[in-house]
Amino acid sequence: MKIAVVTDSTSYLSAEEAKRYNIHVVPIPVIIDGRSYDEGVDITTEEFYDWLRNSKSFPSTSQPPLGEMINLYNQLADEGYDTVISIHLASTISGFVNQLKNLAPTIDNIRVIPYDSQITVKLMGYLAIEASRMAAKGATPEEILARLDDLRSTIGEYFVVDDLQNLVRGGRLSNASAFIGSVLRIKPLLTFDDQTHEIVAFEKVRSRKKALARVEDLFVEAQAKVDYPLKALVIDANDPDGGAAWAAKITQQYPDIPVERSYFGPVIGAHLGEKALALAWIKDYERA
């Protein structure tokens, strides 16, 4: 059995990671002023935030053409793969994975298994990496899917955004009405709801400093509830200095927890806006 792993560009895997783990990355389009750009191909993260900072129009996102996915799956079949596990961003923020679930039964030369990560960003990238690691060791699709389900259940994340404008306009915030109209210094904390897997704003904190401190408290609470090692992740939206400083603080506080850095690229940044920060975690799949 030969299993391929596919994910999309919102996993924010580096080119080196994608090559090392033999992960096929499909770009998600972001639409700016009526023109479509493939994330990570036609537009860089830096170019996107420069545009976002200086533009009055609102960017939107789309889905990769299904024809491109069919071509990719056929290509993998021609390369000798008999199964592909296709891991994509949460169905609550994009219809892409559900489109693939409808497409999969029509592909007859390779078994296509679409997988809803129920998340996005590098957390989803971790799922793709573990799937690839297991495939390389000869695991079956069922074993890989069970492992992904287990890891997915250990994910936690909190986002600190400057304002909710982009999420509200893009329709990605399920309880927006409760948080619209806040004074400028209020920083809403966002997360993916454990039950609905939708992005929700669950708490308002006055000032960015207090918001980050509150997220750190929530991380402490999460650690107390688990009996396995964690891997942490600090993510920034065009705020590398802020992200690096926060990651250094987390590393100093918890030296036994690996802390990695990542970023919100154009597709996710279009919804969160510039200067968003997030602290996320997952079971450390290399140690448990």
Quick structural overview:
This protein is an alpha/beta fold and 288 residues long. It contains ten helices and 13 strands.
CATH class of the largest domain: Alpha Beta
Strand adjacency order, main sheet: 10-9-8-13-11-12
Major β-sheet, in short? 6 strands, mixed
Count of discrete domains: 2
Q: If you compute it from the alpha carbons, what radius of gyration comes out, rounded to the nearest whole angstrom?
A: 19 Å
Return the CATH architecture of the largest domain.
2-Layer Sandwich
- Which series of helices and strands comes N to C? EHEEEHEHEHEHHEHEEHEHEHE
Beta percentage is 15-25%
Number of strands: 13
Query: Could you give the distance between the termini?
Result: 25 Å
Q: Judging from the principal axes of the Cα atoms, what is the shape?
A: globular
**Assembly type of the shown chains?**
single chain
Low-confidence runs of at least 5 consecutive residues: 170-183
Level of helix content? 25-40%
Task: Describe it.
This protein is α/β, with parallel strands linked by helices and 288 residues long. The chain has 2 domains: 116 residues, Rossmann fold (3-Layer(aba) Sandwich); 128 residues, Hypothetical Protein Tm841, Chain: A,domain 3, CATH 3.30.1180. It contains 10 helices and 13 strands. Strands 10-9-8-13-11-12 form a 6-stranded mixed sheet, with helices on both faces. Helix 5 packs antiparallel against helix 6. The chain starts with a strand and ends in a 5-residue tail after the last strand. It comes from Levilactobacillus zymae. Pfam families: DegV (PF02645).
